[in-house]
Amino acid sequence: MSDSGSPHSAEATLAREKKTLRKALVARRDALAKDLWKRHSLEAARHALSLVETLSPREKEAAAPLTVTAFLSFGSEIDTRPLIGSLLDGTRPLRLLLPSLRQSKTIILRPYDRETPLLPGPFGILEPETTRSVPASEVDIFFLPGIAFDREGGRLGYGKGYFDRLLAEKNARGTRVGLAFSDQLVERVPTGPHDRPMHYLVTEEGWMRCG
């Protein structure tokens, strides 16, 4: 008797689809020429800042500083240093957070500014060297990495589920923004019940609302 309709079979099929797409999209991203990688990263940072302004107009500044989670790039990921630098140098009151895995098996959000030292974490990704942390419930905007995205908000990560678990935390209601190159957009990302969709996507071509 075939078990093609069983939950276990469906999970196995989803895992295979994700693995195949990861391999293809990482290869595509790795092949991006260095000058284009740099230029597209700068352009994406400019569009990301435009989205921040759109999501939180200046008249709201008096209420409380905007809390934004970003990420430090790994490998051929889009370079987030231009965005992080612009957020820190802006005139808007803002609290910037970066993810840390060094002291936990789950993501802890650590505050970061130019005076905060950075040390490599478990995957060699730099993380803030501080014991301070901020709950996901206080984040207004999450800028999130990924290997592939689709226009409905589907996101394909690296398969560890770290960011999906972070976004599933209680009262984590901040706006979810996928940040990537336009070459990482696909027709459909295979997703399961635990995958958290994006509200917006930002690439070097601009920003768009998902759905």
Walkthrough of the structure:
The chain has four helices and eleven strands. The protein has 211 residues and is α/β, with parallel strands linked by helices. The protein starts with 6 loop residues before the first helix and ends with a strand. Helices cover 29% and strands 20% of the residues. A hairpin with a 5-residue loop joins strand 4 (118-120) and strand 5 (126-128). The protein has a seven-stranded mixed sheet with strand order 3-2-1-6-9-10-11, with helices on one face. The protein has a two-stranded antiparallel ribbon with strand order 4-5. The protein has a single domain (7-209), classed as 3-Layer(aba) Sandwich (Rossmann fold). GO terms for molecular function: 5-formyltetrahydrofolate cyclo-ligase activity; ATP binding; metal ion binding. Its EC number is 6.3.3.2. Its cofactor is Mg(2+).
